[in-house]
Amino acid sequence: MSEEHGRIFREAWIAGVTKHYAGEPKPGYIAPWDETPAWERQSAAAVYEQVAAFIQATAGAATKLTREQKGRFVSLCWIGQIYKHIPEPKPAYVADWADLPDWQKQTDMEIFERIEQLT
Prior knowledge:
Order of helices and strands: HHHH
Helix content: 55-70%
Number of helices: 4
Structural class: mainly alpha
Distance between the termini: 16 Å
Strand content: under 5%
């Protein structure tokens, strides 16, 4: 997995949190790459590559998804990483799309769009 891809994902996450989170986000939400736990760095790279592969596998047709569908895809890929790295995750870590706060939905949508721009 590419560290560069992980960094791009993380930068898009931080940009989304900064833009959409109401109030002061938790420090971990906006921690720079070098302060992010190794499992999160690995997960960020993995999800970036899953989104890019999805776009490529559809010959770019995945870009026609709605913003919500794009965000849902990012969210599901992230949940897969949570289960990979955390044996007994808190329910909030693996919450379904409908149960996510709006700021997180908006951020996930923008992450897909950022990867889309680079793929």
